[in-house]
Amino acid sequence: MQLNELAKGVSRIPESHREAVLNIIEHKIEHDMKEVINEIKLQNQKFDGMKNEIKIVYWVIGIAMTILLVIIALKK
Question: Residue 25 class from Cβ within 10 Å (0-12 exposed, 13-18 middle, 19+ buried)?
Answer without folding.
Answer: middle
